Amino acid sequence: MSASFRHAAAAAAIVVSALLAFPGSAHARADGPYVDVSAYIHSDAQIEAWYAMTRQLRRDFDDICGDTFCEGEYTNIEPLRFQCSVHRVSGRIGMCVWSFAASEEVVDPLSGKVAVLPRTWQCRTPIEAGTTLDGLLAALEGQSPLYASLPGGRSLFDGLVDCL
Predict the structure, then answer these.
(1) What is residue 73's predicted lDDT score, i.e. its pLDDT?
(2) What is the pLDDT of residue 2?
(3) How far is Cα 42 from Cα 83, in angstroms, rounded to an integer?
(4) Which of 9, 21, 98, 155 has the largest CB neighbor count within 10 A?
(5) What is the pTM of this model?
(6) What is the pLDDT of residue 29?
(7) 93-107 vs 114-124, strand pairing mode
């Protein structure tokens, strides 16, 4: 079995396991109590706060990556998406996850083939139970949301240290 086939099979296994872990995830159900944050946000102020916060989180991560998480085996870690589920009635957050991906490439000097070893992470945000979306947005507003104290006392950076 070739290395490229093994890597393709591993990547496929990751996708299949993710789909099995979250039944119905390919087509989110609209009848549950929790919705994607984009389906919950209902004011211009919330929309602007959400997008400003996610843009700044990406910048904060890019600023520290080379000196922290991107040293070692995976030097090209990229943030993919910061996502939250929100209780459609109360506005309480069910969970927030920041997804990351990276790869390690190895060149075979004899054949010139490149083997790619992909890696993904799903980092849970360490927020206190009962936190509302408005509470999260208020805690993360400003220039450095990665380091801001979340409801519960930890930061997104703390969560990444536990994850990456």
Answers:
(1) 86
(2) 46
(3) 16
(4) 98
(5) 0.79
(6) 54
(7) antiparallel
